[in-house]
Amino acid sequence: MVIASLLLLLTATQSSASPSPRSASSPRSPNNALLKSSGCGSSPSWDFNSKNHHTRNTTVDDHERQYLIHLPNDYDVDTAYPVVLSFHGANGNSAGQEDASQLSYDRQRLADRRIIAVYPQGVKGAWESAPYAEADAHDSDIRFVSTILDELEDNLCLDRNRVYSSGFSNGGGFNNLLACTPSINKRVAAFGLASGAYYPAAHPGSSCKPGRKVPVLMTHGDGDPQVHYHGEHTNASSHSARLSRLPNISHFAKDWAERNGFERDGYKCTRMEGTDKVHIWTWGGDDDDDEDAVQVQRYRVLGMNHIWPTTIKGQQRKHEAAPFNLTEQVLLPFFEKYTLSL
Ligand SMILES: *[C@@H]1O[C@H](CO)[C@@H](O)[C@H](O)[C@H]1NC(C)=O
Ligand SMILES: *[C@@H]1O[C@H](CO)[C@@H](O)[C@H](O)[C@H]1NC(C)=O
Ligand SMILES: *[C@@H]1O[C@H](CO)[C@@H](O)[C@H](O)[C@H]1NC(C)=O
Ligand SMILES: *[C@@H]1O[C@H](CO)[C@@H](O)[C@H](O)[C@H]1NC(C)=O
C-alpha cells in the first residue's frame, strides 16, 4: 500500500517536471497524485487513424451510440492523460464540436500534459433534458456517459482524478444535468458550460442535488438570440411551455454558488484582461487547500451570440467571433485547479 502510494507520487512528480509552456504561467502546480486507469501499460485495442481519431460504436440500453476520441500525437501508454469530454449543441455532431472547441489542438495542455478529447454523439443530434430530445433517451444519455467513462478507463491510459466535462447549448444544459448527478460528478472533477440551454429537465434550480460541491464555470453572451441571457419568461402553462422555460443566467449562477456553500451575493466581479467585453463573477477563493475554493464562475460576454467562445470563425462558427478562446484561455486553466481524489 505504502509502496503503491510512493509509486503514484513518483509518477506524479516525474510527469509535472516535464517542461511545458503552461507550467510557467500556472499559479500552482497540481499536488494530488494522479490515478492511472486500468488501460495504462498496454496499447489500445482501438484503431486510431493518422489523425489520431477513433470513432467508438457502443450499445447503451439497446441504442447504438457513438463517440469520437482524439488522442494526443505523442500518446504513450504509460502516461496518464487528463480527459475532457465535450458535448455538441442541438442538431450538432461530434466533429462539429471538435472543430468549435479546439480541444484536439496539439497545443492544449492541462496539468502539464496533453489531453485525451472525447466528443459524444447525441441521438438525432440532441441530449436528454431538452424538450425535443428523444423521449426514450430518458436516462439513457446519463448511462451513455458512464459507459464512455468505463470504456475509456479500460482501453486508454488516463488520469482518473482528472476527467472533466464541457458542453455547448443543449450539450451545456446536459452538462448541468451531469453536474447534478452524483453517479457522474463523483467521476468528473469539474464542468464547463458554454451558452447552455438549461431547460427544467436539466435541473437548473432546486431539483439539482449534486451531493458534493461541484466546480462549475459558465459562459454566456448577452446578445444570444437563442438562449437569452435573461431567460425565457413565458407564463404559458401548457406542458410544452413548461418544458421549455429557461433561467436568468445570473440566477442560475447564484443557485450553483448557493449549492457550493456561498452567499448568493458573495461574489467578486472582475474584467478579463485586454478586453472590456468580458465580465466575470467568481464565488470562492484560489486556495487549493480550502474547501471553499470550489469555485463557481459566470462569464458574461457583452454582445456575444450563441457560440462556444473563440476568436476565429469556422465550420460551426457562423456568428461573429468572441474576444477570447474559451478552451485554452479559460476552461483548461479552470479545470486544472480541480482533481478528484479517488
Ligand atoms: C462505427 O460506425 C460508423 C458508422 O456506422 C463507422 O463509420 C465506423 O467505422 C464504425 N467504427 C468502428 C470502429 O467500427
Ligand atoms: C436577471 O437577473 C438579474 C440579477 O438578479 C436582474 O438584474 C435582471 O433584471 C434579471 N432579468 C430578468 C429579465 O428578470
Ligand atoms: C401572461 O401572458 C399574457 C399574454 O401573453 C398576459 O395577458 C397575462 O397578463 C400574463 N399573465 C401573467 C400572470 O403575467
Ligand atoms: C484562438 O485560437 C485560434 C485558433 O488556433 C488562434 O488563431 C487565435 O490566435 C487564438 N486567439 C487567442 C486570443 O489566443
TrEMBL record:
Q: Where is the composition biased (Polar residues)?
A: 39-49
GO CC list = extracellular region
User: Where is the stretch described as Disordered?
Assistant: 16-51
What UniProt keywords apply to this chain's record, in alphabetical order? Carbohydrate metabolism, Hydrolase, Polysaccharide degradation, Secreted, Signal, Xylan degradation
Record EC number = 3.1.1.73
Record GO terms (molecular function): feruloyl esterase activity
The entry's localization annotation reads: Secreted
Keyword check for Secreted, yes or no.
yes
Q: What is this protein called?
A: feruloyl esterase
Q: Which organism is it from?
A: Schizophyllum amplum
Write the lineage as a comma-separated list.
Eukaryota, Fungi, Dikarya, Basidiomycota, Agaricomycotina
